[in-house]
């Protein structure tokens, strides 16, 4: 087989495409929410239950998906989950009311929970620590790219062929990717497109790693470092859940936009999120090079800088123009994805390779618990108090998370210990 230069970046590109399709499928619901609420005759609170069904399933399944991927291997595990989420998304087209829609949404959450743990595991297998935040930034860009293309693609399909077609088409594309992943992916120690000397070097690097004893889930939960990452993720995730599931409904209900206007503007925060995800990946190496910060300190400092920017979307209720509101959401999208990249990368820095997908899944589970709780809060209160007071909380959560990260992880002390080890 012909060898491929810079193969690891092609691997990340393949992961990114899978993540794009994953988020295109999950964001289809939020884009179609105003139309579905009308056609299937359900309320804002019932819509929050539909969202909550996905979030609850996703929350519970993240560590389970991570453990399955660690056990089956990335090649087989990721392909199987991609097939499952594609079929679950296509099933949305059969929904006849909010209850059946919630059922299919829950099935989607069960399978889509594998995406981020799988991507993080791919990064841990193919990249050395100093390059991991950049690699996570590029594959994580798929989350916002998928969300960005969802409004125009899904609304066009809905207007042209009906809303059921949007779910069927976005799901079917995922089946094609699952086959491509299974045919093209191998670990660096086995990939035939990797030069023999590079394959040997990868095998030697793995062999040189200290053999850590198997880490149980209970052991992970007892580690202070785990909570240093999980609590900030719990506080950060409500923002992304809000952007993914509530912005289109907010623009329709409080800013008076119709479906076509939402298609024109609702993708912009996710474009900004793409930039934030990629630049956030480069922020840690930049701080290491020019500010002379250690590995973990550079990650934590980047998270803190991004957290400060989250004040922007917290001020959405203070602006009169819907376009200024979208601009503030763009700041939030940029900031959140920069922060998300660095939090996810920390799991590859702190936990052993054999447990990294499970550890990332556990961290993600706590994050999605925060997102689920906040979505149910929006569903219960948005029709009475409005969206703005709830959005204002987003400006507080991430700053609090950054403070907790520094207090619990103590990144500077850990970096000094690593330097003198």
Task: Write a short abstract of this structure.
The protein has 20 helices and no strands. It is mainly α.
| Contiguous runs where pLDDT drops below 50 for at least 5 residues | none
SSE order, one letter for each helix or strand:
HHHHHHHHHHHHHHHHHHHH
Major β-sheet annotation: none
CATH topology: the name is: Growth Hormone, Chain: A
The percent range for strand residues is: under 5%
CA-based shape: globular
Helix proportion of residues, in percent?
A: over 70%
Structure report:
With 421 residues, the chain is mainly alpha-helical. The chain has a single domain (7-205, 222-415), classed as Growth Hormone, Chain: A. Helices cover 83% and strands 0% of the residues. It contains 20 helices and no strands.
Please give the structural blueprint.
Elements: H1 7-39, H2 44-72, H3 74-91, H4 98-112, H5 115-126, H6 129-161, H7 163-184, H8 196-208, H9 217-222, H10 224-245, H11 247-253, H12 259-265, H13 268-290, H14 295-309, H15 311-314, H16 322-350, H17 356-385, H18 388-392, H19 394-409, H20 411-420
Helix pairs in contact: 1-3, 1-5, 1-6, 1-7, 1-11, 2-3, 2-4, 2-17, 3-4, 3-5, 3-7, 5-6, 5-16, 5-17, 6-7, 6-13, 6-16, 10-16, 10-17, 10-19, 13-14, 13-16, 14-16, 14-19, 14-20
């Amino acid at each position: 087989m012909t060898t491929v230069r810079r193969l690891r970046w092609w691997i990340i590109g393949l992961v990114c495409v899978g993540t794009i399709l994953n988020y295109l499928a999950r964001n289809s619901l939020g884009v179609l929410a105003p139309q579905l609420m009308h056609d299937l005759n359900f309320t804002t609170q019932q819509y929050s239950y539909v969202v909550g069904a996905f979030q609850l399933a996703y929350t519970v399944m993240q560590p389970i998906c991570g453990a399955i991927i660690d056990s089956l291997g990335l090649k087989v595990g990721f392909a199987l989950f991609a097939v499952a989420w594609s079929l679950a998304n296509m099933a949305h087209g059969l929904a006849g009311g909010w209850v059946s829609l919630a059922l299919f949404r829950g099935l989607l959450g069960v399978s889509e929970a594998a995406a981020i743990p799988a991507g993080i595991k791919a990064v841990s297998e193919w990249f050395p620590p100093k390059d991991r935040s950049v690699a996570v930034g590029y594959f994580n860009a798929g989350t916002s790219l998928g969300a960005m293309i969802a409004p125009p693609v899904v609304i066009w399909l809905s207007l042209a062929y009906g809303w059921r077609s949007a779910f069927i088409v976005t799901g079917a594309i995922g089946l094609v990717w699952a086959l491509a992943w299974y045919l093209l992916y191998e670990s660096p120690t086995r990939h035939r497109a990797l030069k023999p000397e590079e394959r040997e070097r990868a095998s030697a690097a793995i062999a040189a790693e200290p053999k850590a004893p198997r880490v149980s889930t209970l052991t992970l939960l007892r580690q202070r470092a785990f909570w240093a990452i999980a609590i900030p993720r719990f506080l950060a995730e409500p923002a992304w859940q809000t952007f993914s599931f509530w912005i289109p409904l907010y623009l329709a209900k409080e800013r008076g936009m119709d479906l076509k206007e939402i298609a024109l503007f609702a993708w912009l925060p996710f474009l900004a999120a793409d930039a934030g995800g990629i630049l956030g990946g480069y922020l840690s190496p930049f701080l290491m090079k020019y500010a002379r910060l250690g590995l973990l300190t550079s990650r934590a400092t980047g998270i803190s800088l991004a957290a400060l920017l989250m004040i922007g979307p917290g001020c959405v209720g203070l602006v009169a123009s819907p376009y200024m509101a979208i601009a503030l959401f763009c700041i939030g999208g940029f900031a959140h994805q920069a922060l998300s990249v660095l939090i996810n990368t920390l799991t590859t820095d702190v936990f052993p390779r054999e447990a990294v997908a499970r550890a990332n899944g556990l961290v993600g589970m706590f994050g999605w618990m925060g997102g689920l709780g906040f979505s149910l809060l929006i569903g219960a209160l948005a029709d009475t108090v409005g969206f703005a007071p709830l959005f204002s909380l987003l400006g507080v959560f991430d700053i609090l998370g950054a403070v907790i990260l520094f207090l619990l992880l103590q990144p500077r002390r850990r970096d000094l210990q690593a330097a003198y080890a």
